[in-house]
Here is the input.
Amino acid sequence: MIMTRLGFWAALVLAFYPSTDVRAQADVPEPAGFCDPYGEPDVSLQDRGTAIRYCGKITGAGFDEVRRLFVPDVRRLIISSAGGSYDAPLDLAFLVERHSLELVVDGICFSGCASAVFVAARERTLTETAVLGFHNTSSSAFYIVHFLFPEQRDNFGRLFQRFTGERSLYARQGVDPNILVHGQVSIDPICADLAVPDPSNGEPTINIVSQADLWIPTEREARRAGLTWKGSLPRTIQAAYERLWRQFGPDAYQIRLVETAGSEDFFTSENLAAVPICEK
Here is the structure.
């Protein structure tokens, strides 16, 4: 697990906003009710069994529900999620990849939703409320363990498995894996330390304290990484906040966003070597 100061804060439970051309072109069904992308997963089969709508955190239980509902006619996954932890985002990504699903981002797609599920899709569509956000990944956490806690590497076997899973996914999709590190470096990590193992599974955790919560890629950066999509990304941080405001109201400004629009190259793992260990 990768822990940050970005918590699943008590977001307002708000409805999806009706969209315009992009939503219509993607045949996104009208929502049946409310969606909290930071809440527990709400998964439903829609559009006469050709689409699954996923709303909420990406968890093992949510992934199991996707598998339970999955039928041969499903062609699209419609998602609004703040992300997830451990294996669930990659498990969902591999399902999307295996079945060559189109992904429609209808709201926020943060953390593992962006770095795993979005990357895995055959086709990608962004509605007018869509915002992608990257930060910590298994890859960035693996490099921090490598540089800061080399004596602990043998205790992070599951993290290494997710690291190799991310890298292989990006290789198959033709996407630059350096964005798995770029998001982490962009949010300006202050320090990192070992945290207590997660009580639910005993897995060691890394606590990464950062100045910001999420890196918002520009269209140029995302396309340079090898990503393609229909629709549009927010052109500026302010445009991203405007989209978030439509979903969360004033709570949108609790999310600390950064951009690196002037950067010509992505950060690499070497940029994480300078992250210090947190003082006790």
Remarks:
- Residues 157-173 form the longest helix (17 residues).
- Residues 1-26, 28-32 have pLDDT under 50 and may be disordered.
